[in-house]
Write a structure and sequence with these properties.
Layout lengths: L6 H5 L2 H32 L11 H14 L8 E8 L1 H10 L2 H10 L6 E8 L6 E6 L5 E7 L11 H14 L8 E9 L5 E14 L3 E10 L2 E10 L2 H42 L5 H21 L14 H37 L12 H4 L2 H30 L22
Helix pairs in contact: 2-11, 4-5, 7-9, 8-9
């Protein structure tokens, strides 16, 4: 087909030329306005929190190793997993019921509680013992937990002796225990014969919102403090309300997904049947593109491989865990390849049936076709549409959050976990 046919006639027609000039002027204007509005109002539509991360992943591991060794836990020969963590429950409670996004931003600015922390895990296959360390974004030790099997032997300390250990360690880790009241104490004899104690302290003078309580938990295992955990006790009533809200959201989402899959599934099968009768399905290019997208998705999953070890259960063998992860990745890729291939094949075939004079999708970037003015025009339309889309998205989120009370949690502009990927 000669895609340049009629070009002289179009160039010589002033009406067509004026319409084209008007179209591009309007389109470029919308692109500029949309991009500018998105740039100026981005933080109003998508709340951003300022998280100052002064410690990188390698430094976090080094500090965590020092902490574990100082507690008498040898990490030699152990595997390490690192993740930059967020206490989402505290964030959601703060933004929804304890002062909003401004209160959450204030929480990040003071040192009363750190919702963002580095979490470093030391573990070994087929071994129950492991050690976890939490660090502030600035690199200070914020807490730790040594997992000790219940059948390990140990000493039996009295409650007062265990409390003395807690008081002494709190000074080493700069925990102002004098500002807290003891609210919970429990003791338990473990199968190994040792006595474990748990002490929970609470700030009586400061709350998060109306009912959020700032707390610190200490665990004494035998004659050793094995846990310091700082946390916010979120009201159970909020958990129930949030779960009800999420249940409603999930219901709406599921209904939409079912409707979409029914529409696309029934329509796609009907379209596929029609195309098959006419021998009009081009499977090969659809398979190339669908398979290519699936391969990229699988590669993206494998790129996050260092992070999956946070979920590794040491009771399982590493080989089984690795096999399960690889199997899941490949299965997901195969499903994605099937869906994308079928979608491309049917959509492209039906488009050719409905618009036979339009350029075939699989020939868009082939030689002489790619050099035509039509392809250049459509490419520029696609590029300029991004600015219009950004502007529309910004306006949409501003309207629904400001006037319809929709909620979108604040987030940082970047994720430090990206540095843990094989290829950041």
């Amino acid at each position: 087909m000669n895609w340049t046919a009629g070009s002289k006639e179009i160039k010589g027609n002033p009406m067509i030329k004026n319409k084209s000039l008007l179209f591009w002027s309007l389109f470029i204007t919308l692109f500029v306005l949309g991009s500018a509005y998105a740039w100026l109002k981005f933080t109003d539509a998508f709340p951003v929190v300022n998280v100052q991360v002064d410690t990188d992943r390698e430094e976090a591991v080094r500090i965590a190793k020092q902490t574990a060794e100082s507690r008498g836990f040898s990490v030699s020969g152990m595997q390490t997993a690192v993740r930059f963590d967020l206490d989402r429950e505290v964030q959601y409670y703060t933004e929804l019921e304890a002062g909003g996004k401004e209160a959450f931003g204030k929480m990040l600015a003071d040192t009363l509680y750190e919702p963002y922390t580095w979490l470093v895990r030391f573990f070994r296959e087929r071994q129950d013992e492991e050690f976890l360390v939490r660090l502030t974004p600035g690199g200070q030790v914020y807490g730790f937990y040594e997992k000790v099997p219940e059948d390990n032997p140990g000493e039996i300390l009295s409650e007062s002796e265990a409390r003395s250990l807690v008081a002494g360690l709190s000074k080493s880790y700069h925990v102002p225990l004098h500002a807290y009241n003891e609210v919970e104490v429990s003791s338990e004899i473990k199968p190994g014969g040792r006595m474990d104690h748990v002490f929970v302290y609470e700030r009586p003078d400061i709350t998060l919102g109306k009912d959020g309580r700032y707390r610190i938990r200490f665990t004494v295992t035998g004659n050793t403090v094995t846990q310091i955990k700082r946390y916010v006790e979120v009201p159970e009533a909020f958990r129930l309300r949030y779960e009800n809200m999420r249940a409603a959201n999930r219901t709406i989402s599921n209904v939409g997904l079912v409707a979409m899959f029914l529409f696309l599934g029934v329509g796609g099968l009907a379209g596929l049947f029609t195309l098959l009768k006419r021998h009009a399905v081009k499977w090969k290019p659809a398979l190339y593109w669908g398979g290519g997208i699936a391969v990229l998705q699988i590669a993206a999953l494998f790129n996050q491989w260092p992070l999956i070890w946070m979920n590794y259960d040491t009771a399982l063998s590493k080989n089984n865990f690795v096999f399960q992860q690889i199997f899941d990745f490949i299965l997901l890729g195969m499903v994605l390849a099937f869906v994308m291939t079928l979608t491309f094949a049917v959509a492209e075939g039906l488009t050719r049936m409905a618009f036979p004079r339009q350029i075939c999708l699989w020939k868009v970037w082939n030689g002489p076709v790619a050099a035509t003015g039509e392809i250049h025009k459509q490419t520029w339309i696609g590029l300029l549409s991004t600015g219009i889309f950004f502007g529309f998205s910004t306006i949409f989120y501003i309207v629904v959050t400001r006037y319809w009370n929709w909620w979108s949690p604040a987030s940082p502009l970047y994720d430090p976990n990206i540095l843990a990927h094989i290829i950041p």
